[in-house]
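STRUCTURE REQUEST FORM
Protein name: phosphoglucomutase (alpha-D-glucose-1,6-bisphosphate-dependent)
Source organism: Aquilegia coerulea
Requested output: structure tokens
Priority: standard
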Amino acid sequence: MSATTLKTLQNVFMAQSCPRNRHLDTQYRRDRCAPDMCNLLPTQVGKCAWTSISSMQLHHLAKYKSCTWNRKTVYCNAVSATSTTPMEKVDFRKLQNGSDIRGVAVAGVEGEPVNLTNLGTEAIAAAFAMWLLDRKKPDASRRLRVSIGHDSRISAQALQDAVSRGIASAGLDVIQYGLASTPAMFNSTLTVNEEFFCPVDGSIMITASHLPYNRNGFKFFTNGGGLGKADIKDILERATSIYDKIYVEGFENREKTDSAVKKVDYMSVYTSDLVKAVRRAAQDIEKPLEGFHIVVDAGNGAGGFFAATVLEPLGAITTGSQFLEPDGMFPNHIPNPEDKAAMKAITQAVLDNKADLGIIFDTDVDRSAAVDSTGSEFNRNRLIALMSAIVLEEHPGTTIVTDSVTSDGLTTFIEKKLGGKHHRFKRGYKNVIDEAIRLNSVGEESHLAIETSGHGALKENHWLDDGAYTMVKLLNKLASARASGTGVGSEVLTHLVEGLDEPAVAVELRLKIDQNHVDLKGGYNR
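Status: completed
Returned output:
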């Protein structure tokens, strides 16, 4: 870890009035989810919980909190449960970012005051627990489970512990995954494996995607998929009530509740499923990518696992892969497949190493892109064209749902060359996915929903936008082509997008909006 990162970490945790052992951070990076992780946590221990919220009429919580099964002390990693840090008012509404929650979690950037605090995070997590209890309505004999994972951001540990306290306060069990990907978190609501306490009833991913190091946020899942805008609004309204009650009554007046926090390496389950998917596509060959040279660029986010735990078991050579170590300061480039510097970095890695294919992920691995052996990018319209070609081979005539900014050349390619139907819809990955689900519900078959940003979701994968699974579909094509003798190397992929008419110039402008400007009259409605 760099000296800059350590200094920033020191400042962050000193600001929260909590002692921190620097050696723990280095160890954490090495052993992100080891079974004995609890031994790596600071010695400071607290029993943390929110009081029952009478103002929200949450009387139904009592029957869950009366259950004493497997209750233990909650180990708080970054903030003491008895912290006397003064509470500040929080406008939770401003934390909503569509179907996500995002805010500033680290001080130090001018003009960006912290608005995602540890106490605010506890309130949000407790609110999600309330929301989940209302929808699941379990009987008193069953405790709901919530899994928590995070990307490589420097505020991740502190927020993970704050989330754990908020969930535990409602009498729900907490399953911590440590460093994880967003798609894995959703998968944990579907996996049936009691050894890993799966399936969980709800899941929280702590991430702010490709945003700068000082930001962080949350994505929420149930087995029905990611929560929508209305759900997030509901949770933030509940969080406001919880936080306001604590603000009035005081931090020290919170009721203390013990609850169990378990730690498992769920990423091993998730990556095993990805490996099995490629082997199935290659007629169950053990190492279908043997001899292929594939480099990975994780941008120091959470995607470094892909080289060692997915590609190498399949026989691929991964030398030349770069920025696999998690570093929340993102010292090399923004982990964002839309970023020109990021794409230049993976392209150069492919050419320098004479690799067959390059793969790049965003911070939390729900987006991805690729580069062929000549340095040509599979990104934006080209990635959509490639995925459309693969899906339409499997499902002829199906509808491909994309966001509205795709090119006319892509429409011609999908409809005239591939024989599919191109359905444009409004921007936003959740909008695109929900539209594909809606089309299926009214009888129009759709198997792919994909945005130019790199969010791609397939019907076969529970409509989850999974950057790793998108790349698995490319690997499947490589492996199956070799097994059938119809082609070798990334030219198999390049051939699939031949005939795509690409715009000579494509520029996207994103303007920062001052939500406090008088003309917005109460805020910008995203």
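Reviewer notes: Confidence is low (pLDDT under 50) at residues 1-84. The first strand starts at residue 96 and ends at 97.
Form closed.
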